[in-house]
What does this fold into?
Amino acid sequence: MYDVVLLTLGSERDAPGGCGSGGACCGGASGADTAPTSQTDTGQTSTGQTSTGQSNADQASTGQTDTEQCATERPRVPVLACADALNARGARVETVTARSDAEIDAVLARLDGPARPDGLTWPDPDSKTRLVIATASDGQLRAVLRRLVKRYAPAPSKRPADLPGNRTLPDLPPVAVLPLDPARGGTHRDLVAQLGLPRDPAAVAAAVLDGTPRRLDLLRNDGGSVTLDGALLGAADDAGRPLHWRARVEVDDTILTDGAEPLLACAVGNAGGYATLDDVTLLTAPDPADGQVEVAVAVPVVVRSAWGRKRVRLEVRRARGRAVSVLPREGKVPYLDDGVEGELTRKRSWWIEPGAWAVWSI
It folds into this structure.
C-alpha cells in the first residue's frame, strides 16, 4: 500500500514568486529557523521550533507575530476528510504543514529515486509515496511545483543523455490537488476546475490510490519560477479602465508588437484562466497538454468611419509557439501570474516544458 503525504502550506498569503519566494510561507520564518509541523494518522502532532522574527512592518499591520499566525493553523476540514478516506483504504497517511521552502523540500525529498552514477537527484518513477497538495490558490500549487523543478532540474553543464531533447528537466512526480475551498469551483475557474479534477476529498483520495498520471505542460521562465495556468500583463485605473503600456512581445520568430504602439493587455496562456478580459476573448484555444504556449496582445487601434469620424477598435493579435518574451519599453508593467501579483521591469521569457508535470486523475 502507498504512503501518502498531505501537504498544506502554512499561509494563504502568496509572495510575488509564490510561497517561499522570500524563504517563507507563513509570516517571515525562513527555512533555516523552522521545522515542519506534521501530524500522522494517529493524530499525534510534533512541532519544531518556529521563528518569531517577522518584520516590524508586518507586525504593525497585522498585530500578530509569526508564532501567533502559524500556531492557530490546524488541518482544514477537507484535509481531514481526505486523510480519513485514504486511511479507510489502508494507506499510511501523514499530514504536513510547511512554512518555508526548506520544509517543502523536506517533503519532496521523499520522492527521490535511487542514487545515479552521474550524481543527479532524480525522481523515483516507482515510488510508493504519493503527494497530495492541499491548496487555497493556484499560486500555492505553483509554489510546490516550483520547488520540484528546483530539486530535479539539472544544471545545463550536467545535462544527462537520458533527458528528452525538448526538455530541461525529467518527468516530475505526479501530484494530487485537494482544493481547500470546494465552493470556488462554481464561480472561480481555478486550475482544478479547468482541468476537470475532483474537488471532493473522497474523490481526490480515490484519484491518488486508483488513478493514473495525467501529464501536463509546464511553463518555466528566466525569473526562476514556473507557470501552470498563465499570466496576464497590464493594469487598470481606479475606475477600471485599462491603462496603456508598451512592450515588445515575441513568440518564437513572430513579433506581435515591437513596442512602439500602446497595449491594453498581454495574455500568456498554458491553460485557460486568462483567456478572456472583460468581454474580450484573448486566447482562443489554450491547451495545457499540447506542447505550446498561446499568447495574445490587445492593441487599441484608431479607425475612421466613412464619414471621417474616429473611433477606437480593439485588435487582438495571437500566436502559438514554444517560447515567448516580453520586453517592457517604459516603466513597470503589473501582472498576474497564476494569480500572484508582480511587476515586470525587464525582459521576461517563458518556455514550454511538454508533459513535465502530472496530476493524479481518474
The two ends are 18 Å apart (CA to CA).
